[in-house]
Design brief:
Elements: E1 5-11, E2 16-25, E3 34-39, E4 48-53, H1 62-71, E5 82-90, H2 92-96, H3 99-109, H4 112-117, E6 124-129, E7 141-147, H5 152-163, E8 171-181
The structure holds protoporphyrin IX containing FE (HEM).
Protoporphyrin IX containing FE binds at residues 57-60, 86, 88, 90, 112-113, 116-117, 119-120, 123, 125, 127, 141, 143, 158-159, 162.
InterPro entries: ChdC/CLD, Dimeric_a/b-barrel
Protein name: Chlorite dismutase family protein
Keywords: Heme, Iron, Metal-binding
């Protein structure tokens, strides 16, 4: 089994109750009452299932990495009873850029990492990549966030800040699921 593979499956069972599904850009996902997250391929029935793998970082530089490692906290904190799954697909223009052009948009122009750092440690996160899987996936990234209810407003602010950056001009599909731990 690929230990880096994670499946996020919408259906009638799971660790998280889906409270909303919102199409931010492009086609949405069908409403499902529960979200099941498993390390590996799904084994139980589902309405839809998205797969992604954790991977090495592409853009983070040494100084940023040190700042992230110093403050970030892991998933699964007892206080993190709320979560968001935000699958994202970027357009062909983004993927046609070279690595240094993408870094320039993501950080020099959009300050994605600098903005994100302001929301740590309350927001815990994990990024999954979908493009290199053998089976075609509807999104390029599955972004996952966990936080306590008192930080839900800060999370909304973070979304607003990131979505107004130049980086987001390259997002062609984005769906936002909000969840409550069962
Ligand atoms: C990538 C930090 C919030 C979506 C990254 C990377 C970092 C980062 C360091 C680059 C990883 C690499 O080097 O490959 C943060 C921090 C956040 C945050 C500290 C604060 C909680 C968000 C949110 C979203 C998001 C709220 C979605 C709405 C993404 C996506 C990528 C990414 C899609 C991959 C970009 C690409 O490779 O083209 N984030 N982020 N991030 N983040 Fe965030």
């Amino acid at each position: 089994m690929n230990e880096r593979l994670w499946s996020f499956s919408g259906g009638d069972h799971g660790q998280w109750r889906v409270t909303s599904v919102t199409a931010i850009t492009g086609a949405s996902l069908a409403m499902a009452s529960q979200l099941d997250i498993i390390n590996g391929a799904p084994i139980r029935p589902f309405v839809w299932s998205l797969q992604g793998v954790t991977s090495n970082e592409r853009y983070v530089q040494q100084d940023e990495k040190q700042k992230l490692v110093a403050v970030q906290q892991g998933l699964g904190r007892a206080s993190s009873t709320q979560a968001a799954l935000i699958p994202i697909r970027k357009n062909a223009a983004w993927w046609a850029f070279t690595q240094d052009e993408r870094r320039d948009i993501l950080e020099a122009k959009s300050r994605h990492i600098e903005i994100g750092l302001r929301y740590l440690p309350p927001i815990a996160r994990r990024l999954h990549h979908c493009r290199d899987l053998a089976t075609a996936q509807p999104y390029d990234f599955l972004t996952w966030f966990e936080f306590a209810p008192e930080h839900a407003t800060a999370f909304d602010d973070l979304l607003g800040a990131l979505r107004s950056t130049p980086e987001w001009a390259y997002v062609e599909r984005e769906t936002e699921l909000r969840l409550q731990r069962n």
